[in-house]
Task: inverse folding
């Protein structure tokens, strides 16, 4: 992986997550896990380059992210789409997804990522907050939150961007 300058970072913010997806890779002092994400943003906040991700309060990865605070976003070629679907539908509570996937776990800046990724963004969480259901539009609440789950927003300062 080669580190690139922020100014050379080029990603379509409307398709990269919504249609191509990414793996959010998290680690704390005990374990590592990955889950597929399809929601998020890239931008500038508090004069820092940031990535925002959203994790449901019921996802296994949430407690790991809460304890570890650092994460990577791994983007893959289209040929990995079925594997990304797998990471989004199976919980680590049920099986070791990383081991079963055959992906190669490594670290950049002491943050876990997958070597097979075409693009990796490493982040350090510096803000997180729940998205309270009482503040969600009724139409959106009916569509996404009928089960009374909610998402937690994590804003990570981007520490590095790497590509093959």
Result:
């Amino acid at each position: 992986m080669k580190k690139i300058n922020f100014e050379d970072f080029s990603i379509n913010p409307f398709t990269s997550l919504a249609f191509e997806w990414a793996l959010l890779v998290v680690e704390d002092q005990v374990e590592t896990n990955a889950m597929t994400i399809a929601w998020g943003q890239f931008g500038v906040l508090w004069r820092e380059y940031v990535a925002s991700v959203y994790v449901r309060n019921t996802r296994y990865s949430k407690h790991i992210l809460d304890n570890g605070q650092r994460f990577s976003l791994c983007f893959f070629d289209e040929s990995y789409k079925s594997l990304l679907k797998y990471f989004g539908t199976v919980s680590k509570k049920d099986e070791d997804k990383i081991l079963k996937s055959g992906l190669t776990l490594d670290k950049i800046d002491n943050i876990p990522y997958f070597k097979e990724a075409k693009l990796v963004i490493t982040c350090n969480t510096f803000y997180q907050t729940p998205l309270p259901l009482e503040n969600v539009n009724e139409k959106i609440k009916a569509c996404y939150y009928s089960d009374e789950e909610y998402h937690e927003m994590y804003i990570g300062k981007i520490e590095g961007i790497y590509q093959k």
DSSP finds four helices and ten strands in the chain.
